[in-house]
Amino acid sequence: MTPVMISERISALSEQCGPMRTVLNSDGPTDVPPEQADAFGFNLLGGKDLRESVINGPDNRAVLTIRCVRYIDPVTQAERFAVDYWSVRRYWASDHQTAALAVLSYESAVRGEFARPTLPLALERFTRGLASFYDKTDVIR
Question: How much is the pTM?
Answer without folding.
Answer: 0.91
